[in-house]
Specification:
By secondary structure, this protein is an alpha/beta fold. It has a single domain, classed as Alpha-Beta Barrel (TIM Barrel). Helices cover 37% and strands 28% of the residues. It is built from eleven helices and twelve strands. It has an eight-stranded parallel β-barrel with strand order 1-4-5-6-7-10-11-12, surrounded by six helices. Helix 1 packs parallel to helix 3 and helix 9 runs parallel beside helix 11. The longest helix has 15 residues. The two termini are 12 Å apart.
């Protein structure tokens, strides 16, 4: 079970949005590379990065900041936001990313995701962002008619490394993870699921260690870490203890 600290990039800075609204951004660190280094020194083993401008633009916008992050940390990094072509994927993986996250293109062109999984085994994750139970695209600005599980099942057997499932209605407002929907998704597919959106407190971290949540790969935390609602050392120890008990 992995706790992924999040770095969301807007205009080269590390921010958190409220409910996915670009106009409701709080800047937490003007130096994303320093933030990446800080997370590594706190003991985190992975890093979740999103190019928010890129998600809206459909192309990488905060590439310089991502490059700086990759140079600043030894931790594996997964990146989403504006990655829409095989050339994009190849270029990012060549720079040292451990995983790319495909969101909008997974809805628009599922065949591209399948092809990417063949070309880059173990390196492709799918981001499913939901609002009111339906998949949202284009940086959450547009709703589709697709259901979450309906989309996820399109990638069964394709070799997708993970599904990052975000409940937009909870993102950035510290309302707690939507465990019911997240676990329903995890039950419905064999692809590992990462919970995102709303992780609010140590209660959510403890919830990650419950038996029914063991099928998840982990969860992403943003605002709760930045606001100090979660103590990194305590959270990571809870997960380590749970791992040892399971072993």
């Amino acid at each position: 079970m992995i706790l992924f600290p999040a770095i969301d990039l807007k205009d080269g800075q590390c921010v958190r949005l409220k409910l996915g609204d670009m106009d409701q951004a709080t800047v937490y660190n003007a130096d994303p590379a320093a933030q990446a280094k800080a997370f590594e020194s706190q003991g985190f083993e992975w890093l979740h990065v999103v190019d928010l401008n890129g998600a809206f633009a459909g192309a990488s916008v905060n590439g310089d900041a991502v490059d700086a992050i990759l140079q600043a940390t030894k931790n594996p990094v997964q990146l989403g936001g504006g990655i829409r072509t095989l050339a994009h994927i190849e270029a990012w993986l060549a720079k040292g990313l451990s995983r790319v996250i495909l969101g909008t293109v997974a809805v628009r062109d599922p065949a591209l995701v399948v092809e990417a999984c063949k070309r880059f085994p173990g390196k492709v994750a799918v981001g499913i962002d939901a609002k009111g139970g339906k998949v949202a695209v284009e940086g959450w600005a547009e709703a589709s008619t697709l259901g979450v599980i309906e989309l996820a099942k399109k990638f069964e057997g394709a070799g997708v490394a993970a599904i990052i499932y975000t409940d937009i209605d909870r993102d950035g407002i510290l309302a707690g993870i939507n465990w019911e929907s997240t676990l329903q998704l995890a039950e419905a597919v064999s692809i590992p699921v990462i919970a995102s959106g709303g992780l609010a407190s140590m209660a959510d971290v403890v919830r990650m260690t419950m038996p029914d949540a063991q099928k998840l790969e982990g969860a992403i935390s943003g605002r709760a870490l930045y606001d100090g609602r979660i103590d990194p050392a305590e959270a990571l120890q809870v997960l380590r203890d749970a791992r040892e008990r399971a072993a």
